[in-house]
Amino acid sequence: MIKKASIYSHPLVHRLMDLKAQKENREADDDRKVVAEIMQRCFVPAFVTAISWEGFHFVGHEIRITEAMDCYGAIVWPSALVLCYFLETNVKQYNMVDKNVIEIGAGTGLVSIVASLLGAHVTATDLPELLGNLQYNISRNTKMKCKHLPQVKELSWGVALDKNFPKASSNFDYILAADVVYAHPFLEELLITFDHLCKETTVILWVMKFRLEKENKFVDRFKELFNLEEISSFPSLNIKLYKAMKKNWRSA
């Protein structure tokens, strides 16, 4: 009786499997190194102060951020650090100098502050209840340090977009978004907001942490309107960084 040899016993298959494992190990090592470098940008104050803050080093500046622990939107999440690091380390490809930039879901303002320090005209937006802390952080970290003074503006996704951000005067080169997709009921409104703020030449830089199936479904919906490209992945954080541009339906 002749026994059939398993395909997995072939030396070539073993070699290919070894190469795949080596590649995965290299990618995991690269991920850990980059994530460690990103997290090293954070520091805590050596002394207790009247107003608590957390520190970050980006663009050659010490940035002090005050958080509000009673609100998800007023906390610095890892996705924001990933986007800040990306902006700082990719200035040749994504030059912020004199560009019109809007951040949606700006939260504590860290990403907007970094974009401002890189020379952009920045509009930082979020819900009305977050604007006080957002304005405080942006003012204390950009005053006399930036080429263009950043603006803070209310933006409730999908609400009064034509009135507050008329298409004729809203010419943004970049839309920045960090961790705007999570367990909230406003994903369709978020998609509408992306679509409204985008011109054909607008570039979206969007960092997302994958937590639930909702994230995958939103990405699928997003792809219906935008060309989406994965730029970087950080498996240890379950975070991906995307670049997106509006689909040109006229040429489709």
From TrEMBL:
<dbReference type="Pfam" id="PF10294">
    <property type="entry name" value="Methyltransf_16"/>
</dbReference>
<keyword id="KW-0808">Transferase</keyword>
<keyword id="KW-0949">S-adenosyl-L-methionine</keyword>
<dbReference type="InterPro" id="IPR029063">
    <property type="entry name" value="SAM-dependent_MTases_sf"/>
</dbReference>
<dbReference type="GO" id="GO:0008168">
    <property type="term" value="F:methyltransferase activity"/>
</dbReference>
<dbReference type="InterPro" id="IPR019410">
    <property type="entry name" value="Methyltransf_16"/>
</dbReference>
<dbReference type="GO" id="GO:0032259">
    <property type="term" value="P:methylation"/>
</dbReference>
<keyword id="KW-0489">Methyltransferase</keyword>
<protein>
    <submittedName>
        <fullName>Protein-lysine methyltransferase METTL21E isoform X1</fullName>
    </submittedName>
</protein>
